[in-house]
TrEMBL record:
It comes from the Bacteria. Signal peptide: none annotated. Gene3D superfamilies: Glycoprotein, Type 4 Pilin. SUPFAM superfamilies: Pili subunits. The chain crosses the membrane at residues 6-32. This is Prepilin-type cleavage/methylation domain-containing protein. PANTHER family: GENERAL SECRETION PATHWAY PROTEIN G, TYPE II SECRETION SYSTEM PROTEIN H. Residues 33-286 form the DUF1559 domain. Pfam families: N_methyl, SBP_bac_10. Keywords: Membrane, Transmembrane, Transmembrane helix. InterPro entries: DUF1559, N_methyl_site, Pilin-like, Pre_pil_HX9DG_C. NCBIfam families: IV_pilin_GFxxxE, pre_pil_HX9DG.
C-alpha cells in the first residue's frame, strides 16, 4: 500500500505541479516584460508630445524654435568656447519648470557663469523626468555612460562633474554638427529656425529624437564646448542623421553613436516631428548617405554627393532638401 503525502499528493504529482507552474511563469514573463515596455514606450511618447507642445508654444512667442545651443562666436568654424546653454533650457517654462528656469536665468547669464558659482552649479545635475525616457538606464546624470560627457571646461568644475540626463536630442544636421553644413536639421548652433524654414513640411521633418545610455545619452543644461561640433561639443544636446539609427558598436569618438540617435526600445526609436506628431521609426528604415563625407569638421558634401540618393532616414533629418519622403 503506497503512502501519500500529508496533503494527499504523491512526490511525482508535486513535481508535475511545480513543473507546470514553472512553464506558466516562463510563458508569462515575456508577456509581462512586453506589457511593461509598452507602458514605458507610451510614457516616452507622451514626453516627446509634451516637448512638441512646448516647442510650438515657444515658437508662438518668439517666432522661432529655440537655438540648438547658444554659441559664443558667430564664426562659421568657431573656436573652442565656454560652456553654454542648450535648447532644453529655453522651453523649461513651457514644460511647467518655470521655477528652475528662473534660477538658471539663461537670458541674463551664461552656463559658464552658473558653473563658476559653486553654490548654484549643482542645479544642472537635477533630474527632469520630462527629458528622460523610462526605458533607458542612464542615471540622474550621464556619469558612467560609454563616453561620459563631463562639464569641465572654461568653468573648471573638474572631469568628475556631470550634467543631468537628456534622452531627447535635437536634430541638428546631416553630417557635422556645425553651421557650415547645408542642408541641415532645425536645431543647430545659434539656430533661429521657424516653420517657414521647414520647406519639406513640418510633418516631414525630424525635430527631436532619442539617444540612450549605450550612446552616452545627452545633457539637458547645455554643452561643454560651444565651438565643438562633435564629442564634448554640441552633441551634448543635438544629433545627426548620417549615422545609422541604433548604431551602437562605436560609442566613442568621431562618427560614434554619441552623435547619433538611439533608444532602448526594441527595433527603433521615437522621434518628434516638426508638426508635433510623434512616431516610432524602425532601425531598418532606408539609410543612404549618398557618398557624403560624414566626419567631424569637414564639409558635409563631397564631389560624389547626389541628394536624390539619400535614404528616407536622412530626408526626415533634413528640413530643406526638397525630397519627397514617406514612411509607407
Amino acid at each position: 500500500m503506497r503512502k501519500s503525502s500529508p496533503l494527499g499528493f504523491t512526490l511525482v504529482e508535486l513535481l508535475v505541479v511545480i513543473a507546470i507552474i514553472g512553464v506558466l511563469i516562463a510563458l508569462l514573463l515575456p508577456a509581462v516584460q512586453q506589457a511593461r515596455e509598452a507602458a514605458r514606450r507610451m510614457s516616452c511618447t507622451n514626453n516627446l508630445k509634451q516637448i512638441g507642445i512646448a516647442m510650438h508654444n515657444y515658437h508662438d512667442t518668439y517666432k522661432t524654435f529655440p537655438p540648438g545651443c547658444i554659441g559664443s562666436s558667430t564664426a562659421v568654424n568657431p573656436p573652442s568656447g565656454p560652456q553654454m546653454w542648450g535648447w532644453p533650457v529655453f522651453i523649461l517654462p513651457q514644460i511647467e519648470q518655470s521655477a528652475l528656469h528662473d534660477v538658471l536665468n539663461p537670458n541674463k547669464r551664461r552656463l559658464v557663469d552658473l558653473l563658476n558659482n559653486a553654490s548654484q552649479r549643482d542645479i544642472v545635475q537635477q533630474a527632469i523626468e520630462a527629458y528622460r525616457c523610462p526605458s533607458d538606464r542612464t542615471k540622474d546624470t550621464v556619469k558612467g555612460t560609454p563616453q561620459t560627457f563631463d562639464f569641465n571646461g572654461t568653468a573648471a568644475v573638474g572631469t568628475n562633474y556631470f550634467g543631468g540626463t537628456l534622452n531627447y536630442l535635437g536634430v541638428g544636421a546631416f553630417a557635422s554638427l556645425d553651421l557650415d553644413d547645408r542642408p541641415s536639421g532645425p536645431l543647430f548652433r545659434n539656430s533661429e529656425t521657424g516653420f517657414q524654414d521647414m520647406v519639406d513640411g513640418a510633418s516631414n521633418t525630424f525635430l527631436v529624437g532619442e539617444r540612450d545610455f549605450d550612446c552616452s545619452s545627452g545633457v539637458w543644461a547645455g554643452v561643454r564646448n560651444d565651438g565643438g561640433p562633435g564629442p564634448r561639443g554640441i552633441n551634448y544636446v543635438t544629433g545627426r542623421v548620417s549615422i545609422p539609427l541604433n548604431f551602437k558598436t562605436k560609442p566613442k569618438g568621431n562618427n560614434g553613436c554619441n552623435e547619433a540617435f538611439s533608444s532602448s526600445h526594441p527595433g527603433g526609436a521615437m522621434f518628434l516631428f516638426g508638426d508635433g506628431s510623434v512616431k516610432f521609426i524602425s532601425e531598418n528604415i532606408s539609410f543612404n548617405n549618398s557618398n557624403a563625407t560624414v566626419g567631424d569638421n569637414v564639409n558635409a558634401v563631397n564631389g560624389n554627393f547626389n541628394m536624390n540618393n539619400l535614404g528616407i532616414y536622412q530626408r526626415f533629418g533634413l528640413m530643406n532638401d526638397g525630397q519627397v519622403v514617406s514612411l509607407e
